[in-house]
Structures are given as C-alpha cells and as structure tokens.
Model the fold of this input.
Amino acid sequence: MTDPVPEQRNAGDPPVLEARDIVKRFTGVLALDRVSLSLRPGEVHALVGENGAGKSTLIKVITGVHRPDEGEVRLAGRPAGFTGPLDAQRAGVQAVHQEIGLVPDLSVARNLLLGREPRRALGLIDTRRMHQEAARTLESYGVRVDVRLPLRSLGVGAQQMVALARAVSVDARVVIMDEPTSSLEPREVETLFGVIDRLRGQGIAVIYVSHRLDELYRICDGVTVLRDGRVVHQGALADLDRLRLVSLMLGRDVAQVRAEGVTRFSGAHEAAGEPVLEARGLSSRHLLDDVSLTIRPREVVGLGGLLGAGRTETAKAIAGVLPLDAGGVTVAGLPVRRGSATAAVRAGIALLPEDRKAEGIVPTLSVRDNIALAALPRLARAGVVSDARIDRIVETFMRRLRIKATGPHQPVAELSGGNQQKVLLARWMATEPKVLLLDEPTRGIDVGAKAEVQALVDELAEDGLAVLLISSDLEELVEGSDRVVVLRNGAVVGELTGDELTEEAVMTTIAAHTREEVA
Amino acid sequence: MSDITADTAVAPPRPAGARTLAWLQNYGVYAAIAALIVVNIAITPHFLSTENLRTQLVQVAPVVIVSLGMALVIGTEGVDLSVGSVMALATALIPLYLGYGVGAAILVALVGGVAVGLVNGSLVAFVNVQPIVATLCLFVGGRGLALVLAGGRLKDVQNGTLLDLGSSSVAGIPLPVVVAGVLTVLMAGVVRRTTFGRQLVAIGGNRTASVLSGLPVRRVLLLVYVLSGLLAAVAGVLATARLQASDPSSLGLLMELSAITAVVVGGTPLTGGRVRVLGTVAGALLIQLVRATLIKHNLPDSVAQMVQAVIILGAVYAARGGTGR
Amino acid sequence: MTTGQATAETPVTQDTYALSGRDRAFGLIQRHGATAVLVLLLVVGSLSFSRFPTGENLGDIAITSSFPAMVALGMTFVIITGGIDLSVGSVFALGGVLAAYAVRWGTVAGLLVPLLVCGAIGLVQGLLIARVRLAPFIVTLAGLLGARGLLLSISHEGATTYLIPHGSVLARLGQGHLFGLGYPVYLTLALFVVGGVVLQRTGFGQAVYAIGGAEDAAALMGVPVARTKIVVYVLSGMLAGLSGTLNAARLSSGVTILGTGMELDVIAAVVIGGTLLTGGAGSVSGTIAGVLLLGVIQNLINQIGDLSSSYQQVVSGAFLAVVVVAQTYLSRARRL
Done:
C-alpha cells in the first residue's frame, strides 16, 4: 500500500521523528489506521488530505495531545512517550497552529520570550535586554516592529512570524506547521519560505500541512497523503504530478476528476425577473470599499477572492451585522434598515455563517429549538409560541433535509458537522427567506453531507431564492454559481459569467490584481 | 475535537457514570428535598405541623421570587448582583409614599425596581459592559441611595393594609407564598411558552448566533434585567410588609448570593443557555430546609452556612460533570 | 540561533498596524485615569475644605484606605488571571477574629494563625478552581459562606468578641505611628512595591498576565497554569487575612460583623484602577489609585458634614458606572 520512502538528499541520516503504525480510535470510530511517517533532519514533509482524513489527529498524536491506541512515536530513535504538548515542546517538537497560540494582550517581546526572559540580579526580568533580544530575533525573521507593543497590534502575518520564531528558538528539532499561509500576504509567504529554507539548513525537520498545491511543490521534499485515516501514498513529492495528488486526496480516479469534477451541482439555473437583492456601494473602513452586487430570483451568485478579500464581510454587511460607513441594501425594491440584523431577517435575508460553532448553532438547545429560533415571531401569537406549529415545521424540515438525529429533542451539539449545517439551513428555510447568503456552506463536513448540502442549494435556487455563495473551494464556486463576482482588498475587481466562468478565469482575475498590487 | 468524531452522525451512548451525573444534575435537587423531608418527618418533632410549614414557606418566599429573576439573568449568561440593593430601595421608598395610599407606595417601589433593571439592562445590552460589573455599580450605589432616601434610619411601617399583605392568607396559604407561587407559574410559562423565553435562552447559549438569526438581542437583555429588578422589588415589598418595618440597611443583604445559590443548586448552569424555573424554586427550598433542619436540631448558624457552601460546590460539580466539561 | 544574512534576502514585514488614537486614549485612561481623577479630587478638596488638606486628615485617609488596599492587591492578581475572589470580605473578618483569638498564645501566634488559616482557605479555593476546574465565582462564593461560618463558630455565633490587649505588640502594630502615618500604611506601601515588582519583573507575574490573556495559549507556552492560579488565590486569602489582622489590632478587637460586602467594594476599586475583569490587563498602581479614590470620596462627603455618609456609596456606585462605561466605549473592538 505504501511506496518505499525514496532517496532524498539527506536520506542517509537516521530519522529524527518516526511515527510507527499509529492506531487511534475515538469512541469506536477508527481515526488513524496503522499510519507511519518518518522524518529526516532537514526534510520538509507535506502532510495532505481532505477534512476528516486524519491529519489533525496525527499531528495531535505526534505532539502528545492524544495517546495512540497502538503504535508509537519515536524521537531520535527512542520512544518519545509525550505526556502532552508541553512535554513534546520540551523535547523539541513544536507545532505552529492556525490559531496563533500566543497571548494577544502581552507585548511582542514578552510573547516571544515568555519563560526564557533574560534575568538580572535577584532573578528579576531585565526588560531592556529582553526588548533588544526580541527585536534582534524578529528582525532575522523579517519582522521589524516595536516589540513593546501588545501582540494584537501586529498584522496576522507578523503575529504568525512571532509564533514561528518562538517555536523555533526553543531548540526545535521538528516543527509542524498547520496551514501556515492561510492568513499571510504573498510577501509574508515569501518570508516564511525563507525561514523554512533556513530551518532546512539547520537540520530541523518540518511537517507542512497545506491545501495550496503551489506551495507544496515549491518547498516540500516528501509527501504523505492521508485518506479516511489511512496512508494512501508516501514518497517524494517531485515524483507525483498534481492531478494524481488531487485524485489521491479525493479518492477519485484521475479520469473521473477530469470528466465530471467533484461537486454535485446541477449547473445553470434560469434566473429570471428583477433583482430581488440589490446592494449598493457597501463601504466599511478597512474592510469594504464600495461593493455593489445584485442577485435575481433563481440565481446563484458566487463571491470569489482570497481570504481577507472581503467576502465574509460583504455577506455580513448585507445581513446587517457589519457596521457600514456608506451604502445600503434593498430587498425586492424596499430598503432595509442599515446595521440591524433583525430588520434584515424581517426583510427576508438569511445568512448561513462561516463559523458554524461560534456563530451558528446554540449548543445548549435541542435540534427542534435550533430550527425554530429565527422563525419564532411567525410561530407565535401575541408572544406566545405554538408548540404544534413548531413541531410541524421542525418535522417537515428534518425530513426534507434528511437531518440525522435521534429525534427533534436531541441536543444539537451531539450532531455531526454536516447535520448541524442542515439544522442551520432548516432554521433559515423556516423563515421563508428571499435571499440566502451562504458562507462556506460545505467547509468541514464529510463528503456525503457535502453533496447533500450542494444539492440542496441547487434546489433552493430552483425554488426561486436568490443565493449568494461564498466558497474557498474553487470547483464548488464555479460549478455552483451562475455568476461569480471577484473581490480583492474589499473591492469588486471582476465579474465572470457564462462561458468565461472557469476556475482558471477566477484564478486569473484574482491573480491579475494581486500582481498589480505587488508591482 | 478530532475531525473524525465530529462527523459521526449520532453521539455514542454515554457511560453509566455520566448518566448518573446527568440524572443528578436534572433531578438531584428534588431527590435531596424528598430525602430531607423524610428525614425530618422521622427526627424533627412537629415538622409537619401547619405552623412550621407556614413559617418555612413564608421565609423562603422572597428568596424564591428574587431567584426567579436571577434564573432568567443567569440563563442569558449574566448575573444580577444588585437584587439585594433593589430590595433595600423598595423598602426605603414605601414609607415615603404611604401617604398617597398603599397602592401608590407599592407602585413606586416596583417602579424603583424597574428603574434599576433599566440601568443594569442598558449597561449590559447597549454599552456591552460585563453583567457582573454593570450590576456591581448598583449593588454599591443602590443601597446607598436607599439609605439616603430613608435618612439612614429604620422606620416602622404602620399601615394596616400593607401589614395585611404580610400576614393575611388565601385559603390558609400566606399571601407572600401565594405571590411566590403565582410568579413561579408565570415565569415557567414565560420561559417555556413565549418567544421572549425561547430567545433569552438562545442568547445565553450563543449570543453571536442569536444576533445573526435576527433576534432582538438588546431588547431581550434589557427586559431580562428589568424583570429581575421588578421581581426583587416585589420581594422587597413583601418583606417590608412581613417585618412591619422599613430597614434599608439590612433588608436584602446577601440576597444576591442566596438567589445565585438557589439558581445554581437548581441546575441552571452559570454559563447560560438554559433556565430551570422549577429547579430554581426547589434550590431555594432545599437551602431553606437544610438551614431549618440544622437550626431545629440546635446546630448553629455557622454550621448551616458551611453546609450551604458544600451544597453549592456539590451542585456545581455535578453540573460540570454532567455536561462533560 | 540567528543568521545575519537571512535578513538581506527575505522581505521585511514592517507594518505594525498603527495604534489608533482611540487605542492610545484607551491605554492612557486605563492606566492613569484613576490617578488623574484622584489628583483632581485632592486639588478640589484642598481648595474647598480647609480641614481637608491637613496632615491629620490625609493620614486618616491613608490609614483607613490601607486595609482595603491590601485586600485589593491580592484581588488585582486574581482578576488579572481572569478570576474573581468573592471570599475576601469574610476572610478579612475571619482574619481579625482569629488574630484576636490567637493573640493569647503570643504575638507570633496572633500574626501567624490568621495568615495560615486564611492562606489555607485560599489554597482550597485555588485547588478547586485550578485542579477541579470549578468556576471561580462559585468556588469563592462558597468560600464566602464557609469563612463566615468558621468565623461564627469561633466566636460562638458572634456572641463573643475577642479583645487584643492594649499595649500588646500586636495592638501597637495596628495603632502605632511614624511621621504621622500609621504602621499599616507603610506595610501596605511596601506590599504594593513588592507586588508591582513581582507582577512586572518575575516569571510568576508574566504567568499571571499570560493566563488572564489566553489561558490555553499560556499552557502551550509552558506557563504552569494550575500552580500560578493556586498561588494567586493563596496570596489573596493571605492578604485579606493580614489586612483583617491589622484592622483588628487597630480596633483592639476582632469585630465579627466586619467585611460584609467588602469583596464587591474591593472589586470596584480594582476595576476603577483600570484592571479589566476579563483578565490579562491591569496594574497594582492603578489599584492603589482606585482604593485611594474611593477613600477620598468618602472623606470629602464626610467633610460636607450635613450629608449622610450613605452618599459615599451612591457616589462610588455612580463613579464605577462612569468608569466601566468609559472603559467599554474606549476598548470596544469592532465586533462582527
């Protein structure tokens, strides 16, 4: 099943880190099935796979968050037996996560040197030396800032560099980077790659987790592809072409990927009539710059762009939860009061938020109460709710959306991600909205549920809704939308429709403006 | 959470220990009351006498009333420290307006409670101050204001109608107990059957999601604190009638703690998102019973306080274990 | 660890998002707001009342403020870690009663017994919070009841008031003067200096800030979270006990009814001093300004004479409201 590890430039060295036949189960479900991974000093190793493939579980086993049920992690030839992430760190295994594991209110210098501050007599911290040392270290990572400022005053990229600098400066032997570039500007990515090259030179091994193929091919030596908790490929990245890598990750035939794509969208809809949603000149300082768009009934409009381009902000502005400096929204010709989510909902605007857990479900309530939440006023008379009407609606939608739960009274927190997403969709459908704003509707849910949600979006558009679709999955965006509006730095930079709407075209539109920006 | 477990369709059955804890969390307070009653029937002379039951219920009534409001506030992930001061304010206002009739005096006292609730609610809902700090302001200032109004003195209240409120009975049940009972039923209805009740637990469970779902979050929060203030004022009026005196320097002292205790012991989590009205009443009754039992058996108040402390910790421990956090 | 030439080839990130005027103003007001108002009040008070700026009166403010100040010092540590300690009022009273009770075995016992017992109460609370992971609010609420219960049982349900003999060493500690200021004032100042140094210049202090700022991150950065929290609650208990002891020494007796509601006054002083109840930010200098501010307000109201002393609570409450509203407005991040 696994290819032998091919020769690399440092193949002669003994591995610095080895995971051997790791098995990990969660309440009976097999998360990792005899996964092995071996890292040599100075190797940059790509770890790829779809959501649910087991990447984060493997990382958690390696960094001591989880104990493996079978198999072992070995560091420099000896069993590691980490008791926790801190223990792993002390042994030289450092993880830099997407959520930066630093303290935003402490100063940059204190974050960088916490626990290792230079001391004076009596063991007191030498503030001046601490600041000098921090400034010097960060400068070598291309970050020149006033290290006395609180960390949160830095940009996300610079914060990530501080986290990386901290991780590496603690005698690291293995550094694990989980989606490190997801919030970086292009030039910051270059800095990061510079740093990774330096680590390679120092003989530090790097596990690099990313979905961005360009990056993987630029800096990684080896690759491990995980799917459904198993290693489906291991070897040198250079020996693997892109299409094959994608097909390994998705578990689909190369020919199949080429032929039919991987989404379940049916294709174009017959958009008709006057626009139901009109957003004009949405502007919010630093976030949105004069964004306008219209959606007609039975039309799916996609929003394209990189992270931070203003897609989520546009959706939130339309939904009335982002304070606007200028601009406005009309639904079916009627203006919606600005800055009021309640008014937006009443006008028929529904927002399925990106962060399901933080902004979507109410974990303490049942499936039933979660579904009924937004529609409560229409299910009540004089402020008193009718249980019979709620039951009817809840039953209808649980059946229609095929929500898998033990019953309407099961706590929503016990459902899977995909079913939670369907509960949220049901919450909005119960309000009979005119406009549906979907922010990453299929992120983090399993393949089956993903297809169901995609089919549902299609169906809703067929039923006459105006849909705004935000997705970082280019394929989903292109195949699911009738029209794609591309954003960059909070402003509209292009619109693609009909035959010109292809993945390449979207990328070109994003990229063209990116280059312009850099130059 | 691992990405695999997140995608299993239905949660696996809980282990037996967790089920016991969940049961304790839901019904433990009722079981404890039942056990305590049985024990008392066995060991305490005259426990079931009407006289004794009346005394117990009259004593617990104000705590129950205040706790009902506190339960709503805690359901929104808040807390109201000002309830004791509201009681003091209510009792201070009554003698000032008794000249205009009992109705007017009570009305003014209730308006005082609503006003405090409005200030708390505005600070929480519109200024986004943490509830504990927002209500701390009126905890400190409210009692001061009451003392200023009362001129810092204890006043006898000698109005027949008002005193009747404290001592009269409906079908043999003391009026304060009737009021507490009616308010309990009312609040249970509000939480279970009204839009407002559903919205307030949703706000406590996930405020951002509630905003995004178009819930009138600020209005609901404001109303919750107003209700809490109003209920505390009701408790203040009843206590004044029973004591036949207006003593703003001591009335309602530590009431915020008793109410929080009742709510927590009754199984409403401090993290919000759930309100247990009957549990809250049971929580207040349990604490009252424990104290009464200890005192009846000549165990001093000091022991009662320490036992109460242990009960609080036990309740919170059970709540924590049951939800698996 | 660092390689010099790397800088030359890697692009440089220099964009510290400029701190906005609002951020700056917030920082200034948060750090020095209480001090500024304090100075203003002192000036106004001195100009308005001839009896206000006398050495005797100011000394009086200093000594009466010193007891809540000690308690507030411990509370500042607790709140910076993101916790809260509601038990301090009871522990303060318990400390006084224990000192008066134990002084029969000698001065050392009179000082040590309350410190040890109150420290032990803090230890139990800290263990429940840090190890069993119960909410600080609830644990210390139980602590409030428990400590008060202990106090009542020692004093025979409050019926017995133990006395500290006049002229004993302990009484002199509480009542003695040096340059017109009571001994407790000097002790309080010393404690605050030490507290400030500990908070700013030791690993423990860094841990306190880090835990309040982002507990999970702090744990991953190697901060001993549980141990730090336990120490913080022990400190708070001991400082409350010490304050109660000295207060009893000053009054020559362990008054059982003291300290009710003190926890919330102390929290108010800490918050007015600019420490955020959400944790992660604050300073001991702000706390001392907050305590003094409330002390000066009380004193000024007394100066006005015909005003009831209850106005002090009204003014404190209103002032606290102004402070928290200002803090919230200034710090409100653009949410959503």
Chain A has three domains: 17-92+171-258, 263-348+433-519, 369-429. The first strand of chain A starts at residue 17 and ends at 26.
